[in-house]
Amino acid sequence: MAPTLKVNPYRLTELRDLAGIKTDAELAKRLLIHPNTLSRIRNGGKLDGDFIARASVVLGAHPGDPLYRIVIPTPAAA
């Protein structure tokens, strides 16, 4: 399996609060995504470049921010 990029849900909440955004529904609206998409991303779903770009603008989260983490799968035991 290939490494994947995930969101740190605690950092997402922190940045949302710092931006003065009170709810995930409002955050989703500002990110121009459906609230279900934000929920999926918050709960470990895959990210895409559009989300990263929009989060950079709306939340001030650059690609190296701890909002993002790379998950490298471990090989299954034989």
Note down, in words, how this protein is organized.
- With 78 residues, the protein is mainly alpha-helical.
- A two-stranded antiparallel sheet has the order 1-2.
- It contains four helices and two strands.
- It has a single domain, classed as 434 Repressor (Amino-terminal Domain) (Orthogonal Bundle).
- Helix 2 packs across helix 3 (35-42).
- The chain has helices spanning 9-18, 24-31, 35-42, 49-59, and strands spanning 4-7, 68-71.
- The protein is elongated, with a radius of gyration of 13 Å.
The gyration radius over C-alpha positions equals 13 Å
What is the third-level CATH name, the topology? 434 Repressor (Amino-terminal Domain)
CATH C-level: Mainly Alpha
What percentage of the residues does DSSP assign to strands (E)? 5-15%
Secondary structure blueprint with pairings:
Blueprint: E1 4-7, H1 9-18, H2 24-31, H3 35-42, H4 49-59, E2 68-71
Antiparallel strand pairs: 1-2
Helix pairs in contact: 2-3
Summarize the structure.
By secondary structure, the protein is mainly alpha-helical.
Features:
single chain, 78 residues, mainly alpha, 434 Repressor (Amino-terminal Domain), two-stranded antiparallel ribbon, 4 helices, 10% strand
